[in-house]
Automatic annotation (TrEMBL):
Mapped WD repeat ranges: 1-23, 24-56, 69-110, 111-151, 152-193, 194-235
GO terms for cellular component: U4/U6 x U5 tri-snRNP complex
BP GO annotations: mRNA splicing, via spliceosome
Domain of life: Eukaryota
Segments traversing the membrane: none
Protein name: WD40 repeat-like protein
GO molecular function per UniProt: U4 snRNA binding; U6 snRNA binding
PROSITE patterns attached to this UniProt entry: WD_REPEATS_1, WD_REPEATS_2, WD_REPEATS_REGION
Keywords from the UniProt entry: Repeat, WD repeat
Species in which this protein is naturally found: Wolfiporia cocos (strain MD-104) (Brown rot fungus)
A Pfam entry, by short name: WD40
Keyword Repeat among UniProt keywords: yes
Length: 245
């Protein structure tokens, strides 16, 4: 497990024991986002001061070495590797999505279209990117041409997070409007609105088989949703936290 924090650190954890394996220091501001490359060899981290660090985690002990730094003069809300690990995308407060060569961290493409901060973005496959913005929309992009293929609308406040199912047949978005919305990326149809959270939805993620969805919120709960059954109600709820998750 990899985590980031406002103490400027990136930490790796043993998923079974919960012990800290390594503390990676080097950022000079709050770290807002982390992502592990598909092969597990690299970790990318993005900070409030607009820097992206890429760490080499190839050794068995996960000893990190700082390889490259990129500055785009705005806070980095998202870092996310492409499925083959050759590209890295970032989203920033300047309303842009950028893709970078994951080895040299040279800029590849810039995506324009959102009218407000881009809070979240993910690769669906090598050809498609989904993004969510404070402009209340989710956009679908051609990852190679930067063309905006579709705009999904319906949220009543800022979109804070997006995720794509492992099969690529569903997209989910979370918002300050306290709802989770499930979309069909092919037809652009809104499939369901999940309303159990009582505060901002801060994170969403699919299970590996795509049959369940987990969400975290400012209401201090983690909720589990069964996408094969009645997805309009929560399958389970965890609430041991005392602060937003």
């Amino acid at each position: 497990i990899v985590s980031c924090a406002d103490d400027s650190s990136v930490r790796t954890w043993d998923a079974e024991s919960g012990t800290v394996l390594n503390v990676m220091t080097g950022h000079e501001d709050e770290v807002w986002s982390v992502n592990i490359s598909p092969d597990g060899v690299h970790i990318a981290s993005g900070a409030q001061n607009g820097t992206v660090y890429q760490w080499n985690s190839a050794t068995a002990a996960w000893k990190p070495t700082l390889s490259t730094v990129v500055s785009v003069d705005h806070g980095i809300y998202t870092v996310h590797y492409s499925p083959d690990g050759t590209s890295l995308l970032t989203t920033t407060a300047d309303r842009m999505i950028r893709t970078w060569d994951a080895f040299s961290l040279t800029l590849l493409r810039t995506f324009h279209g959102h009218s407000h901060v881009v809070r979240s973005a993910v690769f669906s496959d090598m050809n498609t990117i989904f993004s969510g913005s404070a402009d209340r929309t989710i956009r679908i992009w051609d990852a190679n041409t930067t063309e905006c293929l579709a705009v999904l609308e319906g949220h009543e406040d800022e979109v804070t997070c997006v995720a794509v199912s492992p099969r690529g047949d569903k997209v989910v978005s979370g918002s300050i409007d306290r709802t989770i919305r499930l979309w069909d990326p092919e037809t652009k149809e809104l499939l369901a609105i999940l309303r159990d959270h009582t505060d901002t939805v801060l994170a969403v993620s699919f299970s590996h088989d795509g049959n369940q969805l987990v969400s975290a919120s400012g209401d201090c709960t983690i909720r589990l949703w069964d996408l094969q059954a009645n997805i309009t109600s929560t399958l389970d709820s965890l609430s041991p936290h005392k602060s937003p998750i």
